[in-house]
Structure formats: C-alpha cells, structure tokens
Amino acid sequence: MPLLKFPRKLYFIVWVALLRTGAFAQDQTPPDYTAVYHPVINQAELRVVEKKYEEALVAYKQAFASVPSAFARDYYNAAVAALLLQERKETFDYLEKLVAKGVSLDYLERQPVFDSLQATRHWRKFARKYPKRRRKYNEGFNQELRANLDELYARDQYFRQAKGGWRVHGDTIKKIEVANTAKLLGWIDAYGYPGEDQIGVADTLEQLPRFSIVIERQTKARKGHDFSDVLTKAVKQGRIAPQPAAYLLDQQAGRSKYGSRAFIKIDCDECAESDQIGEYLTGNMDEETRQRIDSNRQELGLEPLGEYRLKILHGTTDKRFKLSYTWSVANFVVPSKEAAKVILESLSLKD
C-alpha cells in the first residue's frame, strides 16, 4: 500500500518516534515506549474513530516498526483496519502475530468482525497452521512463571471465597497479601515485569493478567507497597501498556490520578425515564484538575483525557475495534430514584 498523506501532527510524532528508536540512528538503546510507541498508537486510534482506516494502518505500521515488540491489542486493531481496507495479506500477518502472543484460534473465531474471513481459503490455511504456531508459542513463553503468577491469584481468592470470608479469615488474608507481594517483587527482580512476551496473553486479549490483583490490593489507604516506580518503569520498557498501568496506579492511590475511569453509568430499574440516568456521565472536574490528569497521562504515554473519552464513546457504537477497557466505565446499580439522585448530585453530563 503506498504511503499516504496524513496530518502534520501525526507525521511529526511518527518522525520523532523513528528518530528516537534508531531508525535514523545507529545506537541500540532500548526504546522508551512512552515516547516512541504509544503516542503513535494514539494517533492510529484517533484515525480509527474518524473512520480514516488507511491513515490508521499507516500509523500502526510506523508504531510497530519503532519497537522490538508491539502489544497484542494493537495488532488486533491493525488487523481489523487492514480487513476493512481489503488488505487480506496484512490482515493475516497481524492475526499470525496475535497467535504468536498466545491469542487462541477459538477466540478469533468468536469475533464477529472476522466472520467474513472464515469461509475463505486463507482462513482455512490459517486454521491448519494454527496448531504448529500454538506449539511454538507454548515452547517460547515462560510457563513456569505464568503458573507461579496464576498461583498468586488463587492464593488471594482462597480464603476470600471460603465460608466467613474476610470476617473470619481477615488475619490470614492479610498475611497472604504480604507474602504475595513479596513473591511478585522477587519475580520482577529476577525476570523484569511479566509482560506479554514473557507470559503471553492467556488465549484472549487479556487486559490485566490475574496476578495484577496483588498490586490492586496494595492501596495507599491500607499502607500497602507502592508499585508506582515498578509500573512506570514497566510502561517505558514495553512490558505493560499504559492503560492498565494507569488503572492500577489509580487503584493504588485511591483517587483519579490518571482518569482511568473516564465515565460513570447509573442503572436504576425503578427510576423514571431521565436524560441523565443511563448516560455516560463524568465527575465534576475543574480545569486545573483536568490539566493535572492530562500531565500525568502524558508522562505515562497516554492520550489526553478528552481523546480517551472519545475512544470509549466510539466503542459503544463500533464493536469491531478494541479501544476501551473493562474499567473505562464505572457502573452503579441503585435501588431507588433517591439513591440515584445522591450520585447524580456530584456528576455532570459527558463533555
């Protein structure tokens, strides 16, 4: 596909990304993903929102070329963009990269956007080669580390799910949280932060590996271990995407430092019809707070809050692309109109 003309802002970001990653330089310094990768991915996603799929695909290619390993979610969105442009070879190239990350054939077959491909000989060939590629994936990722990390989640949940839960087993649960944190930090010291290239994505486009629950438990309010340095370093190294990192950092802080929860929805079966109930709402936010959040987001390689919200809203009408996250919208279920009013008093309609 020929190189397209696209907005100057996107061209500048791409040029800087290539310059910093050594496309024009000779050093082999590991790239900083917050500077060279994620800003370009943001531009690709904005072009998706605008339905400018050719420009989006150009930006995806530039982002992928700037780093040694891209993220599965971005390969997925690039595959969809290529499909909509009828670039079949590129579509399957990206699907194969997803398989190499650990995404299962079953998961891909369940995505409606790929229905039109599944009757083609190209898909049949792709499916025939899948078992071999899956074996290669299984041989390549750190299965022992993945199993150990999954065990952290199992330990976290065991006494919480037992009869009596926290009320009966609170002291034991606290000890497990301390032990889990120590184990996780030890493995991070030994292997680096466990990213997609180390532990895969567990068949789906996994947004947060299950071991992340260990970090979520360590809140500032409970004087838990501060993972801020670990997470920000991991984002720069390309071991975790900035969106899940922002969510974990917000959870730890107990407040919205990065605006990971961009909208609020209120569901109330007994409430009368209202223009506000059920809409995508935002909390009241002054300009100073917005600027502070945007500054924090930029340091992590994220788009401004307004662009993040735009992508989330796009995802409510176009399910083909993966542009939002499970935590992007906080859902409240209230029993009555009065309860809904209490929440609504502190909210404003979407920007």
TrEMBL record:
Keywords: Signal. Residues 1-25 form the signal peptide. This is Tetratricopeptide repeat protein.
